[in-house]
Design goal:
mainly alpha, about 0% strand, SLC41_membr_dom_sf, ion transport, SLC41A/MgtE integral membrane domain-containing protein
């Protein structure tokens, strides 16, 4: 019996490699197979899952970068800067009180006390806006880019130009105020004439109103120019340090900038006044030369910062507001001059009221501006901001920061008032009145809120 034979196997095509065969055929085959797989229908999950995962990763990264500070972080980060700022305000107030009581320059030229508040406010406003711009650049990651130093120089140049312009305006306003209030100059002149203290600079002739104004203008221009160079360098260094160590510069830079600014403004103003006073006693040529050079330098500073769009926009938006602030500050200077004649210890507390409250307002304003620049929208609407009760009860980070600054304002103020009073006792006993401290506390609460 014959066994059945298996069916014959089909012959498989054999592939033979030829050295003349190109590898392009294999590539074309792989491409055709991949395209055939792409043409096959896929499920919705296969199509959209990679995109969903990528979007979730992006959102997670953005949320990690924009996590708001907790109240504890804001308090701890701003505690030491507020303390340093308060010490700077105390030093500035004691220096101004000493000048008002002991220096014959203040009695000889009463415009000095009228001019000091606008100069302090000018430097404070420019320093706070500069530090806010630097903080915004740090939040946007510009500090990691090339050319950041050039941007800082251009912003500093714009600040220098604004300093000179507003300084000239403030001097004109103070001259006008003294001109329409002759009692201020007469009272100070009589006090100076009746004084038994003879200083080294009494051998110079008395200055007329115009000469004293030119003398003060030249001194103030030199003062704000020096302050701008020092403060912009200092503020950029602080912001850069905070950015490198993952701190929020909005919580740190404003109080530190204000502390050094007040001391520099008063100290440098007194220094340049005593430096130029002997020359102004026999000739007004030197003050005129300084003023002329400063006016001619304004276009140069503007040209240096013209290439930075952010700096130019800031200068355009800020110029009129700074002029208006100078007008208000000059009126405050008039009140300070009247108060200093009636209450000789008043200047010691004036810098505390304006300095410490200004620091808290600057911290909140800097945080708001950084949030608006990054998110392009506000956390609260106009109606919520218009009603303080609704504003302070909101749950957003801005309202929480405002509550923290408000509740800690009075303890900080009274602490530094106590230090200032104790230091004043060392120099000269002062009269203590509970009505003064009660009124001071009410003024602080109203001003900060």
């Amino acid at each position: 019996m014959l066994e059945p034979q298996p069916p014959p196997l089909e012959e498989q095509p054999t592939q033979t490699y030829s050295p003349t065969t190109s590898s392009d055929e294999g590539v074309e085959t792989a491409v055709e197979q991949r395209s055939s797989r792409d043409d096959e229908p896929r499920s919705i999950l296969e199509i959209y899952t990679p995109k969903i995962l990528t979007s979730m990763e992006t959102v997670a990264d953005e949320e990690a970068e924009n996590v708001p500070d907790t109240m504890l972080q804001i308090f701890l980060q701003s505690l030491f800067p507020f303390f340093i700022g308060g010490c700077g305000s105390i030093g500035a107030g004691l220096l101004l009180t000493y000048a008002n009581k002991e220096l014959s320059l203040i009695k000889e030229i009463p415009e000095f006390l009228v001019l000091m508040p606008p100069l302090q406010g000018l430097r404070g406003n420019l320093d706070m806006t500069f530090s806010s711009r630097m903080s915004t650049l740090a939040h946007k990651g510009a500090f990691a880019e090339e050319g950041i130093l050039m941007r800082v120089r251009r912003n500093a140049a714009v600040s220098e130009a604004l300093s000179i312009v507003v300084c000239l305006v403030a001097n004109l306003i103070s001259l006008f105020i003294v001109h329409i209030t002759p009692d201020l100059r007469d009272s100070q002149s009589n006090e100076f004439a009746n004084s038994t203290t003879v200083s080294n600079d009494t051998d110079t002739r008395d200055l007329s109103n115009i000469e004293s104004s030119m003398f003060l203008t030249a001194s103030s221009i030199l003062s704000v120019a020096l302050n701008c160079a020092i403060c912009t360098t200092f503020l950029f260094t602080i912001v850069y340090y905070a950015w490198k160590h993952d701190y929020n510069p909005d919580n740190i830079v404003a109080p530190l900038g204000a502390s050094i600014s007040d001391m520099l403004t008063i100290g440098s103003m007194l220094f340049f006044c005593y430096l130029l006073r002997p020359y102004a006693g026999f000739s007004s040529a030197l003050p005129n030369i300084i003023i002329s050079i400063s006016i001619c330098s304004i276009p140069v500073w503007i040209m240096l910062g013209w290439k930075d769009e952010m700096a130019v926009t800031t200068a355009k938006q800020q110029c009129l507001t700074l002029v208006f602030a100078s007008i208000v500050s000059c009126l405050a200077g008039l009140i300070q001059s009247e108060g200093a004649m009636t209450y000789p210890n008043y200047p010691a507390y004036q810098t505390l009221i304006s300095g410490l409250a200004g620091n808290r307002g600057a911290v909140l304003a800097s945080r708001i501006s950084s949030y608006l620049e990054i998110h392009q929208e506000s956390e609260l609407g106009w109606k919520q901001r218009a009603i303080p009760f609704i504003y302070y009860r909101s749950d957003c980070s801005e309202a929480q920061t405002a509550r923290l600054l408000l509740f800690t304002a009075l303890p900080f103020q009274m602490f530094f008032v106590g230090i200032s009073t104790a230091l004043s006792f060392v120099y000269e006993p002062v009269e203590l009145d509970w009505k003064f401290f009660l009124g001071y506390a009410l003024v602080v609460l109203v001003q900060v809120s």
